[in-house]
Amino acid sequence: MAYNYAKAVLIFALALLLGLAAAALPLDLGVSFIVFIPAAGVAFYLCGLGPGLLLVVLGGAAAPWLTMPEANAAEMLPLAPQATVKLLIYFIGAIATGMTTLYLRNVMATLRSTKVELTTRADDLLRSFNLRSEVICRCDMDGKILFANDAFCFMFGRPLLAVQGRQWDRWMSPEDKARAASALGQLNFRTPTVSIELRMLVGQAREARWYEFFCTQNIHSDARESELLLVGRDVSHHRQMRAQSTAAAAHWSDLYDNAPVGYFSMDPWGGIVNINDTTLRWANVKRESMTGQRRLEDLFTGDAIAAFRKAFVLARKGHLVCGAWVDLDPIHGRIRRVSLEVLPQFDSGGNFVQSKWAMTDVTPRHLLDMYYSRSIGTDQSHFFGTRRVGMVKLLNRTIIWNNAAAESMLGYSRNELTGQSARMLHVSDAAFHSIGQKAYSTLGIGGYFGVDLEMACKEGTPRWIYMSGMRLDQEPEHSIWFLMDISDLHRKQPYLLGEHSDGALTSNPPLVDDQHQALLALE
């Protein structure tokens, strides 16, 4: 800042010397003060606003003494009218000149800055045009190259002079030339641009790489076809990634469409949005007749429709539905039992968007369940209805249930024993109390009790019965008893003990052992 003021003072001194030299001339011009006006312009231009104003003030103080002879110096006093007018004219001219010069200075600085910026931008654009990855060339309608950027020349390892005038398709794979010619043949007034992917032989090694070219037809004002603009970029990596993506998409599509589970999605109104091939096979319908035209509930029957609607309503409310078994009724074919799982989806605002459904075929499991249910029912019916083993359920020694075998074994008719006291099965009160005391003491500690005893029949003749029992819960009063008729075995017991019993099992030596011992004694 001080340096600029010093320069302004120096400019004033030079102007003052020039004014004094003009005043010393023999010609009396009376305009020596005019030298301070261009000096003010120079000061404004070189030093700025403040130093320029300083020079104007200094020039105004010195100008009166340069404009009049010494004899008339008294007239140039600051209060003299003639001096005041001259000073006013001086100040107006000096300040106007200085401000104009300052404005021109700023304009020139702006022009220089703009010129530098434009030059830099032009260089950048030219450098980007020449070094960008896109290859660019202009050709005439015969395919001869008129211009090519550096990337185009670098791609083929040739300078621009070696490229100009050559056919642009000479570096193209022979297999793609016919396809390129067909694509260029589609250019017309309505279709001025076409795109095509071609294999170009790049570098000295002529490596085949895929390039995508955008071919634009430039037409002159006289409507004559003039030239082609070709802009290409290397898409080999993109094609590789696209091939991998396509393979992955095909893989996931195969997993989705051919999964052992039926998948589909539905909009908020119950229309089918997407559906896999497995569901279509189960439904025995074509894809065209399902998507956007059919509701999945059309495939359900009877109670399954109600189950489906209930699951759909729950899904719209945000509930996750799992394990609902319904019958999928195809238009043509067999009914398939499936298990439904529903996953609702909502947007960021909490609005229901769609529901995703999964159907698992549970037909084999359902058939097995039915088979085992029938088998178990048959076995239970056979077991509880058998005539070989009688069963009696007691509560506080009162018969609350019995099977048909217990009734036929003792000569009673159907349901005649139910509700009766167990005393009627014993031959005497003593036997009833004795068996009860022994049995319930064993059942009370969680054991099993079994005994051979005579039980009374309805006609009065006792029968030998093997009776065993166990308690059904923590109280011994609730028990179940199994009865087996051993009357025939009891009648044959003396014969079995005498000739065929095993001493190790019955503690009775068989007759064969007795005879053997007698022979040993005689010897």
Describe, in short, the structure shown.
With 523 residues, the chain is α+β, with helices and mostly antiparallel strands. The protein is built from 18 helices and 15 strands.
What does this molecule look like?
- The protein is of the alpha+beta class and 523 residues long.
- It has four domains: 2-107, no CATH class; 132-241, Beta-Lactamase (2-Layer Sandwich), CATH 3.30.450; 258-366, PAS domain (Beta-Lactamase, 2-Layer Sandwich); 385-491, Beta-Lactamase.
- The chain is built from 18 helices and 15 strands.
- Helix 1 packs antiparallel against helix 2, helix 2 packs parallel to helix 5 and helix 3 (49-62) runs antiparallel to helix 5.
- The radius of gyration is 60 Å and the shape is elongated.
Features:
523 residues, alpha+beta, Beta-Lactamase, 4 domains, five-stranded antiparallel beta sheet, 15 strands, 46% helix
Q: What distance separates the N and C termini?
A: 157 Å
**Overall number of strands:** 15
Q: Provide the low-confidence segments as ranges.
A: 69-79, 499-523
CATH fold naming of the largest domain: Beta-Lactamase
Biggest sheet statistics:
5 strands, antiparallel
| CATH C-level category of the largest domain | Alpha Beta
Report the average pLDDT across residues. Answer: 76
Strand ordering within the main sheet: 2-1-5-4-3
Radius of gyration: 60 Å
| Shape category | elongated
Structural class of the secondary structure composition? Answer: alpha+beta
Name of the CATH architecture of the largest domain: 2-Layer Sandwich
Percentage of residues in helical conformation? 40-55%
Write the CATH homologous superfamily of the largest domain.
PAS domain
Whole-number total of structural domains: 4
